[in-house]
Amino acid sequence: MNNPLVSPGLGVIFWMLIAFGILAFILMKFGWPVILKALDKREKDINDALNAAAEMEERMKQLKSDNEDLLKQAKLERDEILRNARATGEQLIEDARAKATQEADRIVENARENINYEKLKAMHDLKNQIATLSIEIAEKLMKEELSDKQRANAFVAKELENAHLN
Hints:
Blueprint (H helix, E strand, L loop, with lengths): L9 H136 L3 H14 L4
């Protein structure tokens, strides 16, 4: 087993250590600061992202709270509007009832006045008809009784005696 990779000689180990040392020196001098700077930048970016996420979460909680408050306020306003609408509706119905009652009372009063007017008119017409009939009957009776001259003169004299002149 003379494989140089498995059992390296002292010279190979020496040169490998020198090559590794130079590589380590170059990496420490030029590579590590860049790598550390990149890692620091990445760590800072991750922390910023975490802080931004925490801020966003806080803002979302605030927005959710604000939305809930707005929803509660909207529900309260809706309830107030519905109460006002019901009250207005009831007031309109009550006003309509009052107007209808007034109109009905006015119509009943007008009907009573018309009935009284028609009653008086009918009574007046009836009195006129009775008076006309009485005059016609009296006229017929007078014609019958006064058809004789002697009877007519006696009737006139009798009525003149009964009449009191003022």
